[in-house]
């Protein structure tokens, strides 16, 4: 059997673990921390022209100051739909419309809401950890098959350690990202 058949595709495993990190960062960006962020509107979909459309495809999203997000809607006929989508999104923001510009004042978060958000952030981090561990499990399955196909004990140990090191590194990144996000949320 050829040696390359006994190797593990660590690039694929790394890419999948990086994908879990990217998803986590996207989830964290959608958490409202009391500071204005254009990405907080990413999950909001507007019923535009008969199909759900991301808000950034019907207008320009800006952050003119730390507690204000504005949406400059390109099509005047969509202003009410954008406003309705923001109100129904669960962000807890009341839009104020001025022509085609929708202003979103970001209120201060109270202590209870901050604690809730840190718990949500922890749940997102745990989902990322589980995804990374699932990728690790897949890597270990590949190792078992390779060992059964004739991989030496030494090679098996080297690959095993590499997959475990990659997993530990990504879990540490998740923990660091969670710590940063929780500090950001609790900051008054």
UniProtKB/TrEMBL annotation:
Pfam families: RRF. This is Ribosome-recycling factor. Keywords: Cytoplasm, Protein biosynthesis. Its main location: cytoplasm. Belongs to the RRF family. Residues 24-186 form the Ribosome recycling factor domain. InterPro entries: Ribosome_recyc_fac, Ribosome_recyc_fac_dom, RRF_sf. It is found in: Cytoplasm. PANTHER family: MITOCHONDRIAL RIBOSOME RECYCLING FACTOR PSEUDO 1, RIBOSOME RECYCLING FACTOR. Responsible for the release of ribosomes from messenger RNA at the termination of protein biosynthesis. May increase the efficiency of translation by recycling ribosomes from one round of translation to another. SUPFAM superfamilies: Ribosome recycling factor, RRF.
């Amino acid at each position: 059997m050829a040696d390359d058949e006994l190797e593990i595709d660590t690039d694929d495993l790394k890419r999948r673990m990086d994908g879990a990190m990217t998803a986590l960062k996207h989830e964290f960006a959608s958490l409202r921390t009391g500071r204005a962020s254009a990405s907080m509107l990413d999950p909001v979909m507007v019923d535009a022209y008969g199909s759900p459309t991301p808000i950034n495809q019907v207008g320009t999203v800006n952050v003119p100051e730390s507690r204000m997000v504005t949406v400059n809607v390109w099509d005047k006929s969509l202003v009410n739909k954008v406003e309705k989508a923001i109100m129904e999104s669960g962000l807890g923001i009341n839009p104020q419309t001025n022509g085609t510009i929708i202003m979103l004042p970001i209120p201060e978060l109270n202590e209870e809401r901050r604690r809730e958000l840190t718990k949500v952030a922890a749940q997102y981090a745990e989902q990322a950890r589980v995804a990374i561990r699932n990728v690790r499990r897949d890597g270990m399955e590949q190792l078992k098959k390779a060992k059964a196909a004739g991989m030496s004990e030494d090679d098996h140990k080297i690959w095993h350690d590499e997959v475990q090191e990659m997993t530990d590194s990504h879990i540490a990144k998740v923990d660091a990202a969670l710590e940063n996000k929780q500090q950001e949320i609790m900051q008054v």
